[in-house]
Amino acid sequence: MNRCSDESDVADRGACEVPLIDERATARALAALPDEGGVRTLSDMYSALSDRTRLRILLALAAEELCVCDLAAITGVSPSAISHQLRLLRDRDLVTFERVGKRAVYRLADEHVAILLEQGLRHVEERS
Q1: Quick check: 92 and 58 in contact, CB under 8 A?
Q2: Kind of pairing between the strands at 103-108 and 95-100
Q3: Burial of 27 (0-12, 13-18, 19+ CB in 10 A)
Q4: Is 89 exposed, middle or buried (0-12, 13-18, 19+ CB in 10 A)?
Q5: Model pTM?
Q6: Residue 106: phi, psi to the nearest 5?
Q7: pLDDT higher than 90, residue 67
Q8: pLDDT digits (tens, 9 = 90+) for 10-63
Q9: Separation CA 88–CA 38 (nearest Å)
Q10: Which of 33, 56, 66, 85 could bond 70 through an S-S bridge, CB–CB 3.0 to 4.6 Å?
Q11: Which domains does the chain have, with CATH numbers?
């Protein structure tokens, strides 16, 4: 017997055993979705978080405001590579900076970024 057609196998994979659409639930879910621009922006933000170096930068900035040189020392990545990553994070509104003398000191853009990181870490810790 073809394994894919086995009903218990379908259920084990988390698939529906019969094609049935709940039109009310579907309509409510569609109404709750942001517009395409919002989905794209959210996707871009999460994409930025998918890179380990960028994530380490954000986690370090959640603890302390730091300059490019500090972040390079923490991550073991060159200052030019850090600058490139920070530019991407700025473009996604995840970090901001200010000039302090000759230094560019970075911080998280706002409390929402810190909460996002905290929630992600809490989720990972619960799953471990």
Answers
A1: no
A2: antiparallel
A3: exposed
A4: buried
A5: 0.82
A6: -100, 155
A7: yes
A8: 557 888 888 899 999 999 999 999 999 999 999 999 999 999 999 999 999 999
A9: 18
A10: 66
A11: 19-127 (1.10.10.10)
